[in-house]
Amino acid sequence: MRRARKLRRRVPERRRRGAPQGPPRGGPGRLLSLDLPALLARCRALCPQGPLVLALSGGGDSTALLHILADLARAEARPLHALVVDHRLRADSAAEAETAAHAARSLGAAARVLAWTDPHATQAQARLARHRLLAEAARGTGARTLFLGHTREDRIETLAMRLARAGGGRGLAAMGELDPSPVWPQGRGLRLARPLLHTTREDLRDFLEARGADWVEDPSNADPRYERVRLRTSGLGEDPRFATRLLRLGDAARGFESRVIEAAAGLLDRAASRLAWGGLALDADAWAASAPVVQSRAMEFALLSVSGAPGLPGPGRVEAALAALARSQRRTVAGVLIDEGGRLGRDPAAAGRADGTPGAAPLVLAPGEAGVFDGRLDAAAQDGLVVAVAGSRPADGLEAVPAAFRPGVPVIETASGERLAAFAPGAARYGTFTLLTGARLLHLAFPFGAGTWFDEV
């Protein structure tokens, strides 16, 4: 049976309309337009220290980045790791993943194949699943940066799709050179680096050709069922004027987003205080004095950080929380309780609802195990224990928590039956427990979390 993905060592046919169809520039001894020293400097700037970790598909883009990072790793004696996701969507996927891993090992990288076990997910779910796998593996290497091989064309296609969906400026700000990981808690503290966003696919394949390197072409890149492929084959992105204007629009959107996030980080620095039990206290007057877009973004960050939720609050949730804060009203929204004094804490329904809806699932840890409870507590157990919400049962240390918020506070249940709040001093006898409210805010506000408030994280 013929393989679905074909090993290649040639430059794909050029499709640019009106472009001369001369011989490819790649190959030994031929002139390359790729500026390797500049790319090495860019990779170094995006990840100045620690291990170099790459998400490797085996395609031309990520394979070219593998070679670039291998050069940097050798020059600076840094560890290099290649993470390959076996998506299991085709019978050949396992062999293809091993081929990519072998290529990485031949360049001195430590390669690891990650198996994805839910092939029936939607494209959006699959993307997040891959990010979770990659984030957990990258953090396991001790890295704070994960390199991705997205190119100039990837950014143009993403911008065109976002523009077609009329998602607003925020959607157009997608895919920057350095972004926080989109998954939580797996991606906490992890940044995505894309050093090839100003480099074309053609130049990268010329670079590989010059090195005599192999890569693979995924047939899904030619499957018209996918929106990106339809856009790619439409010829729209090949119009240089369209591409230039779209990239300028994206740059403008990212500039605006940066200013909003910087202002939101400043508002949190001035007007939010972390509470020892995982909540936040907000200054309603300072909030009201800020621009509406800044209020909304800062409140979004606050809701995500207190709730531990993996994704954005649903439509209208941020606005409802802002109204409750402004009116000094008690309200439950997006997994968070806001009280009359502007304090935010985990929704008491984390312990379960009266209609029988279950709350946060307990985290059971054996001796020496670690995990994250409810997206809010990083726990490493010395002895076997269970982390759960307090609910209506008493626990040492809960007296420091306002009564309305106690049911949602994380507590430790030991094998001997002792129950104590995870933030209580006595909890240190059983392991290490860190509330993630501040870490989540810092993650979301990257790269502007430099104020004194964030220094407490």
Automatic annotation (TrEMBL):
Region listing for Disordered, in residue ranges: 1-30
EC number, as in UniProt: 6.3.4.19
Catalysis performed (reactions): cytidine(34) in tRNA(Ile2) + L-lysine + ATP = lysidine(34) in tRNA(Ile2) + AMP + diphosphate + H(+)
Binding site for ATP: 57-62
Transit peptide recorded as keyword: no
tRNA(Ile)-lysidine/2-thiocytidine synthase N-terminal domain boundaries: 52-233
Example of a GO MF term: tRNA(Ile)-lysidine synthase activity
An example Gene Ontology CC term for this record: cytoplasm
Top-level EC class as recorded in UniProt: ligase
InterPro entries named in the record: Rossmann-like_a/b/a_fold, TilS/TtcA_N, tRNA_Ile_lys_synt, tRNA_Ile_lys_synt_N
Keyword set, alphabetical order: ATP-binding, Cytoplasm, Ligase, Nucleotide-binding, tRNA processing
Biased composition range(s): Basic residues: 1-18
Intracellular or extracellular location(s): Cytoplasm
One biological process term in Gene Ontology: tRNA modification
Entry function: Ligates lysine onto the cytidine present at position 34 of the AUA codon-specific tRNA(Ile) that contains the anticodon CAU, in an ATP-dependent manner. Cytidine is converted to lysidine, thus changing the amino acid specificity of the tRNA from methionine to isoleucine.
Notes on the domains: The N-terminal region contains the highly conserved SGGXDS motif, predicted to be a P-loop motif involved in ATP binding.
Family of the protein in this entry: Belongs to the tRNA(Ile)-lysidine synthase family.
The protein's name in its UniProt record: tRNA(Ile)-lysidine synthase
Source species: Marinicauda algicola
Gene: tilS
